[in-house]
Amino acid sequence: RMEGWGSYTLPTGTEYRGELRDGAFHGRGALLFPGGGTYRALWQRGVPAEGRFAFADGLEYAAEKWRYCDGYDRRFCSEICAGLRAAGNSQLTNLDPPRKIPEGCYDCGDGFYNPKTRIVIDYELRFLRNADDEEHEWIIRTCRKAEEGALGQRASP
């Protein structure tokens, strides 16, 4: 059984780094998710007693008084931390400049989605999953699509 300090990679690619006792997470440790998020916690026999989740952009999740993208304040974390830009120079994503999306695809938050093949690949272009009908419709309706023409260039007015 795993004992002491160590790391363990789950089949999903999520990695645990921290203290272990009798084969379970026990003590201080963190789950590092493939998309960049991190959950740091104090574990007791494999169950988190207390913990905090931080997204890949550094924004920490708060169960109460969550103010990020709540309908009243639609700013990205980077805009909350660094301030808004001048009118006409708004950010499209939390990353600036935004990721370049392959032609005909969508950025669905954890990777790129090709509606013709219905496949989601991660940002390193590795297979993640096949999208079902519900996810397909949600991505088409809500996610940012590659711009027409040259990748990453805006059309002139």
Describe this structure as you would to a colleague.
With 157 residues, the chain is mainly beta. Among the domains are: 4-54; 100-145, no CATH class. 10% of the residues lie in helices and 32% in strands. The chain has 2 helices and 10 strands; from the N terminus they run βββββαββββαβ. It has helices at 77-82, 133-142; strands at residues 4-9, 15-21, 24-32, 38-44, 47-54, 106-107, 112-114, 119-121, 127-130, 144-145. The chain has a 5-stranded antiparallel beta sheet, with no helix packed on it. A 5-stranded antiparallel beta sheet has the order 9-8-7-6-10, covered by helices on one side. Strand 7 (112-114) and strand 8 (119-121) form a beta hairpin. The protein is globular and about 55 Å long. It starts with a strand and ends in a 12-residue tail after the last strand. Residues 149-157 have low confidence and may be disordered.
Which features would summarize this protein structure in a list?
about 160 residues; 5-stranded antiparallel beta sheet; 10 strands
Question: What's a quick, concise take on this entry?
Answer:
It is found in: Cell projection, Cilium, Flagellum. This is MORN5 protein. The protein is mainly beta and 157 residues long.
